Amino acid sequence: MYVTRPLSFYKKSEEALSLPPPEGPNSGILVIQDNDLEPTSCFGLGQYHEVKGLPFPQNMNLELFYRSGISLNRTTRYHNVAFIPVLNQPLSSNKYYVIHLHGKKRGAVRSEYKLVLYSDPRVLQPVVTVKIVSTDNQCSNHLITSDVRLTTWFGLLVLAWDLRVYSSLREAYINSREEDVETFCFYNSVSEVPLHPLDISDIHQEFEIYPRRSKVTLRSGFSAKSVAEDGYPPRFLSRRWKVSASTSSNDSCLGEASGADDSLRSNKPEFKVSIANKCSGSVVVGKWYSPFMFIKEGTHRTLKEEMRKSMFYEMTLEQKWEQIFTCENDGKKGNTVNVDAVVQKEVVVIAGWEAMVDDNIMDVAENFLWFNSFNNVGEKNSVGLSTAIVERMKWEQEKVGWIGGKEKEFRVKKVEEFEGSVNGWKKFGCYVLVETFVIKRLDGSIVLTYAFKHSHQLRTKWE
Q1: Collapsed DSSP state (helix, strand, coil) of residue 51
Q2: Which of 284, 263, 201 is CA-nearest to residue 26?
């Protein structure tokens, strides 16, 4: 779970870069570009906004680029990536997860073109086959579309097949290990490792970014090295490169998120609630952002929807009082009420319906916990949460006295006495403090709510 800090704050005080993230496990800092970038001109590239220093902002579209080749063969290569600060590290460490975004629009990532020539249409034996595959072949789980065309060329039947492969997954680059290094003619060649889902426990997915100048032109740039001692970064990251930035229609709306407001949280919501109401109004007492790698939506999405999907989710912590027991005075109760209620400790809601943990899909390998809800017609909605998020949520709750454990429920059993005159009350209600994490998309729509009920925080009301 990440808080945000404006880039201008670090420009004014570089010492602040050494400050650790907020207290607690799996905590990080996102940097918000709050000043306009100055345009940079470069021959052959036109005008672009260059990111000239660290830390990198996360509310901008960043494109890594470099030039290779000589003379007429000199070309500029681009990689649309996201640099997400490593959890539990100060920004001064310059450690990042590097996420592959599959092109500017996160769409086409690979194209294959097959040209097959036939000497006789009645004999389907190809004379020549030409196949061109781009270098980006590190993805899995693709959506495939094809376009088949028949034409003639010098009296021959030509079949042209354009196969485009798309990927809805945005995965992490990983450093190769020593065993992936091959020696060829006294030259060490590093085999590229396929993209992986982000695993924060894998140090080989962490990169340290550092400034690097060209030895010839002395122009500034960046390079990356593996945080793991036995790691070797992908070739394009280990060379010198620059970063351009553009405004993101979705992620540019990242706002202030300071984590939990301990002062506001300790005050509790105002206990002004009618017994006729099941709960009080909610008060926001904390705010974070979570990168998309920690939250998975199981709902089917079209390619267009995936391309528009934001890089981040908003997470807020809300407090309210929720009714767990109520009764009315029938004239026989006197001045005492026996409260007896069984309350769930945790309640997860997806699409308006209570969700349960899917024991069949624990996704232990990727450290995800999946929740399923079913509406009144049996329609299923699924959301996966990284165990890193769940661990942090529970830490936030235990910090203020919430009791977890194996038991899924707690029982409230006590006697309450009315201090007024006999038969001076008509209704009685008992309420528990509920703290709820609300996970939203940046368009404001709710993905999931995760409520924790505090057995040690009870209030009663007489009417």
Answers
A1: coil
A2: 201
Distance from C-alpha of 174 to C-alpha of 241, rounded to nearest angstrom: 18
Asked if 213 and 221 count as a contact pair (C-beta separation under 8 A), the reply is: yes
Strands 368-374 and 295-297 turn out to be unpaired
CA distance 295 to 56: 22
Beta strands at 283-291 and 312-328: parallel, antiparallel or unpaired: antiparallel
Q: Give the SS3 label for residue 37.
A: coil
Between the CA of residue 47 and those of 39, 82, 252, what are the distances in Å? 6, 21, 21
Q: Where are the domains of the chain?
A: 2-100+172-251, 108-167, 257-462
What is the Cα–Cα distance from 401 to 268, expressed in whole angstroms? 13
Residue for token pair 């199981």: 298
Q: How many Å is the maximal CA-CA distance in the chain?
A: 106
- Quick: pLDDT tens for 304-360: 566 567 899 999 999 999 999 999 988 777 889 999 999 999 999 999 999 999 877
pLDDT, residue 309, reads 74
Q: By C-alpha distance, which of 412, 393, 408 is closest to 456?
A: 412
Residue 88 zone, left/alpha/beta (φ > 0; ψ -120 to 50; rest): left
CB 264 within 8 A of CB 317: no
Tell me if 263 sits within 8 A of 354, measured CB to CB: no
386 forms beta bridges with 368
Output the pLDDT for position 249: 62
Between 460 and 69, where is the model more confident? 460
Whole-number pLDDT of residue 389 = 98
Look at the block and give the residue holding tokens 């540019």.
252
Q: For strand 242-247 and strand 222-226, is the pairing parallel, antiparallel, or unpaired?
A: unpaired
Residue type, 350: I
Q: What is 409-427 written as a DSSP string?
A: EEEEEEEEE--SSTT--SE
pTM: 0.82
Average pLDDT, rounded, for the chain: 83
Between residues 231 and 70, the one the model is more confident about: 231
Using the 8-state DSSP alphabet, how is residue 294 labeled?
G
